[in-house]
Amino acid sequence: MKEGKRRRKYRKPDAGAGSYTHDEWDYRRRRYRKALLDARFKDTHPHCITIDDQAQACLPHMFGASNYTVLQEDVGKLPCKVSDIYRRLRG
Predict the structure, then answer these.
(1) Backbone CA torsion sign across 57, 78, 85, 31
(2) Where exactly are the structural domains of the chain?
């Protein structure tokens, strides 16, 4: 990848994630973690933005200590917050 060029990918969470069994959920989590590690190997830097405060239990393991943001504020402010986070990441 050329210096200064960054690619952005957006992932919409699976609908109905609560309907998975524990084994299915564990399998999906392991598969997603492997995809993140593969992306890092290819010089892509994943960052997660979520409004799910319960996700804090697995996000450090999945994305690393500083590669995720949990928005715990008013969801109506989400568009402004995403823009702020994007600006900060672009540095």
Answers:
(1) positive
(2) 18-90
